[in-house]
């Protein structure tokens, strides 16, 4: 692969803008989340995903797939959260290899307390600064790019399974 397909000026500007946007939002929203609730962004993502699931439970692989995380990353995050009592991991009857992750009462309480403050932070650092058209453009771009990774040959996989 010797041919370089350099970014055009417009593409480079878009890429650099995305990188800067991601960096500032990760920093500001992550900082707010930690100080407001004591949760990390990863904690919040897991809790929010489980709270939206039927009965607050998902198989480990479903949880990871829903968040576009590898099974390994999901398992490590769940283990950390389990030690803190936010989630519980149980086996799936009839399938000894499958794990079901469940939201505990402490986890449900944590997400209920954190969500309004998190939404306020997202509004403060992003939503309130953009027009409706800009919000629609971000949403559309996200849908187009992420759809590629939800299924098919480019979907998110464990590094261990690719070797």
Task: Summarize this entry quickly.
GO terms for molecular function: DNA-binding transcription factor activity. With 163 residues, the protein is mainly α. It is 65% helix and 11% strand.
Can you walk me through this structure?
The protein has 163 residues and is mainly alpha-helical. The chain has one domain (14-153): Orthogonal Bundle (Arc Repressor Mutant, subunit A). 65% of the residues lie in helices and 11% in strands. The protein has seven helices and three strands. It has helices spanning 9-37, 41-52, 60-67, 71-83, 105-125, 132-150, 159-162, and strands at residues 57-59, 87-92, 95-103. The chain has a three-stranded antiparallel sheet with strand order 1-3-2. Strand 2 (87-92) and strand 3 (95-103) form a beta hairpin. Helix 1 crosses helix 5, helix 2 packs across helix 5 (105-125) and helix 3 (60-67) crosses helix 4. The two termini are 21 Å apart. 16% of the residues are buried. Residues 158-163 have low confidence and may be disordered.
